[in-house]
Predict the structure of Putative metallo-beta-lactamase domain protein.
Amino acid sequence: MSLSATNEPTNQELWRVESTSPSEPTIHAIFETNTGTWQYLVSDPASSSAVIIDPVLDFDRTTQTVSTRSADALLEMVKELGFNIEMILETHVHADHLTAAAYLQRHLPHTQGFKPPIGIGKRIEKVQTLFGQRYGVPLAEYTAVFDKLFDDDETFKIGNLTAMAVHLPGHTPDHLGYRIGENVFCGDSIFHADIGTARCDFPGGSARDLFRSGRKLLALPGQFKIWTGHDYPPQERGTPRPWMSVQEHREQNKHLKDGTTEEQYIALREARDAEMQAPKLLHQSLQINIRGGELPKPAQAGHRMLHLPMKFQSEEW
């Protein structure tokens, strides 16, 4: 596995939603097309304070090359907008893309020695232990790599804005959303209404938990915006969209719209998960992301190594 920085064009699309009041953020949503991931720059309109949510580090499976095109584009946007990044927020340990959190933390401007902390939910240590042992990751490489572990419903500041960490288990047990004004950045919980919700078949995942997390989100006032972690737009829609209102989800979400019972959802979700292929970057993502985005330490020969499990069709091997 190799690392490169490049000035090649990024595979990204951009949305911007302006603040409508001092208590509402300005939001830049940046869509990374290779993994279908929405990254977010969320800023306080009264100051230059901002946070980054779920940034992407690019990975080419063919060449096993990590590159920083998407992260460098975020750095350039932060510079152009004059933002002071107060924190880098992760909703969970992603299984479908590598996080750029550690790279951004290293390359964002540091004021008087301050570097923006990387925040995630307090249950992350169980997830790190599970996958650290599964992939043989040295304990020292994933211990204390996150700077801030949020409690459920813990509040924090982004300049003058008040934000809250909201526990949304189901896709993973540690999963968080971030409520900022009348917006919730829900990660891999709810997707666009024509997709429904995220899968629940990872270790510690639960369709029952995700249904209840979904109902928690849809109990918010109808005008609230739910900003998703991914989009995979079907052909008839074509264009990715980062948010839908709570009311739109109540009326349209194919998995969670009003009238759907818990048992109906569980049956539907578990049947769908049984048909799904593993994410293409599953093993690479988990091994990097439990490290907070740091790359593996070089082996004696100088290579940075990841472990990939093998499967055998013959039981007589």
Notes: The helical segments are 69-81, 101-107, 124-135, 207-218, 246-252, 262-275, 282-289. The CA atoms of residues 227 and 245 lie 9 Å apart.
